[in-house]
Amino acid sequence: MLTDNPAVPMILVVEDDDNHADLISRSFGEALDEYRLERVGTLGAARRIMERQLPELVLADFRLPDGEGSELLTTAKGICPVVMMTSRGNEQIAVDALKGGAQDYIAKSPAAFAAMPRVVQRILHEWALGVCRTCDFA
């Protein structure tokens, strides 16, 4: 959690790898007061958080202990954007994730983690404008 201010956007990070979660959190170092990060390591925990409070955006690992992060695309459809992340993805998984409603698909790397704040800012901006794959905006 970068800030505990409930007025700032909450980003739900669904990542079971502690090292990757730490890299994501550290990438937001310059944006300490702009976002609130909630990290969970399973689909079940992500769903419980989403029932309690809707995030502004979900960053979801593709492979999780209790399923695939892409299952959150259905949960979040029309509610908030989802960015899929993977260490071992391939082009077909990326295409399927984007067709399924993911706003973006990121192959995990140090450069991708460093760019995460810019990715989040872009996705939130696109979502606010209605430029999204999962929206049912008229």
Report on this model:
- The chain has a single domain (10-129), classed as 3-Layer(aba) Sandwich (Rossmann fold), CATH 3.40.50.
- 38% of the residues lie in helices and 20% in strands.
- It has helices at residues 18-27, 43-52, 72-76, 91-99, 110-114, 116-129, and strands at 10-14, 36-40, 57-61, 63-64, 67-68, 82-86, 104-107.
- Strands 2-1-3-6-7 form a five-stranded parallel sheet, sandwiched between helices.
- The radius of gyration is 14 Å and the shape is globular.
Task: Summarize, please.
This protein is of the alpha/beta class and 138 residues long.
Task: Provide keyphrases for this structure.
alpha/beta, Rossmann fold, 138 residues, disordered C terminus, 5-stranded parallel beta sheet, 20% strand, globular
